[in-house]
Specification:
13 helices; D-Maltodextrin-Binding Protein, domain 2; Arc Repressor Mutant, subunit A; about 325 residues; alpha/beta; single chain; globular; 3 domains
């Protein structure tokens, strides 16, 4: 009987990174010849590598046919794991190359869309100019994916909205206040009014964020004040490029986090509309960082962001209070 422990021991003792490369290329290209050309091997070497891997795993990975090869169900199950391992190798190579070639190392950082648009787009170019020897590897992540990456130790820093629960061994330092804002393009019929009434707002077509986000819950509460149910656009998305594309080309309104919309507001492509009543607030954007053991490059980036984004005392005090909102 084959056990997972036995397979793991064989892979650790006899597996090679080249096996992953051959497996992934064969699955993508479906041809031994094309795989050999893509990774600089001979066809016989690819065939031998595949045979060795199938023997090592004691399972058939590809079915051969006249036009090439086709992944078996077992191979299909294995491919997501192989891709993750290969992505990890690429990431590790980038980090090591940055360390060897530039001397000052690199920073693995994740950021929410609101943090990237409302803070990092403004701050990172200045950091790159001040510290050209430090590479910042930035990836966009939201909500639970952020916390999962933090808990796995896969990142050095997270720039995000204050989480409801800060992971053990980490601390949150606020950088910029946030809130919600109604936006539309500069040519929108309500753009000149800037302070429309509830009836005007109810008559518009609204672009919605997905359910479960703080901004979406705030819109649902807002819509309850309308004299009639609002019309909504059929596309529901949190993708900034799609949001901007739709908002700039149609007479739509959206209730968005201020920091997410900040670049488009600063250029005048989108304009804010003032609600008749109070606008719901949001938790601040800031740095989620380890309490100890942070590398020199990451420390420099933290110091730079804190110097570039001075935080009012009211925001710092608010960040110390518990937050029960879902990060947008």
């Amino acid at each position: 009987m084959t056990t997972s422990s036995g397979l793991l021991n064989r892979l650790l003792a006899r597996g090679k990174f080249r096996h992953l490369q051959v497996l992934l290329q064969l699955a993508e290209l479906g041809s031994v010849q094309r795989t050999a050309e893509a990774i600089g091997m001979t066809q016989s070497s690819v065939t031998q590598t595949l045979a060795y891997l199938e023997q090592l795993l004691d399972i058939r990975l590809f079915d051969r046919h006249a036009r090439g090869v086709r992944p078996t169900p077992a191979c299909t199950d294995l491919l997501p794991v192989a891709r993750q391992l290969m992505l990890g190798l690429h990431s590790g190579a980038e980090v090591l190359a940055a360390r060897q070639n530039q001397g000052a190392g690199s920073v693995r950082m994740i950021g929410s869309a609101a943090a990237i648009h409302g803070l990092l787009m403004e701050a990172l170019p200045g950091f790159a100019q001040a510290h050209p020897a430090i590479q910042v590897h930035l990836e966009e992540m939201e909500g639970e994916d952020q916390l999962l990456a933090v808990s796995r130790g896969a990142v050095d820093l997270a720039v995000c909205r204050q989480p409801a629960v800060v992971p053990q061994g980490w601390r949150f330092e606020p950088l910029r206040a946030d809130g919600l804002v109604v936006v539309g393009r500069s040519g929108h019929p309500l753009a000149r009014a800037r302070r429309p009434n509830w009836a005007d707002l109810a008559a518009q077509v609204w672009l919605l964020l997905p359910a479960g986000l703080a901004a979406r819950r705030a819109f649902d509460d807002l819509a309850a004040r309308f004299p009639a149910p609002p019309r909504t656009h059929p596309v529901v998305t949190r993708s900034p490029p799609m949001l901007w594309w739709l908002l700039l080309r149609q007479d739509l309104l959206a209730l968005l986090p201020l920091n997410l919309a900040r670049p488009m507001l600063s250029t005048g492509q989108l304009v804010p509309l003032t609600l008749p009543g109070p606008t719901p607030g949001l938790a601040p954007i800031g740095i989620l960082r380890p309490t100890e053991g942070l590398g020199a490059a990451a420390l420099q980036l933290c110091d730079f962001l804190q110097a570039a984004m001075p935080v009012p005392a009211s925001v710092t005090a608010a960040a110390r209070r518990p937050v029960r909102r879902t990060p947008p």
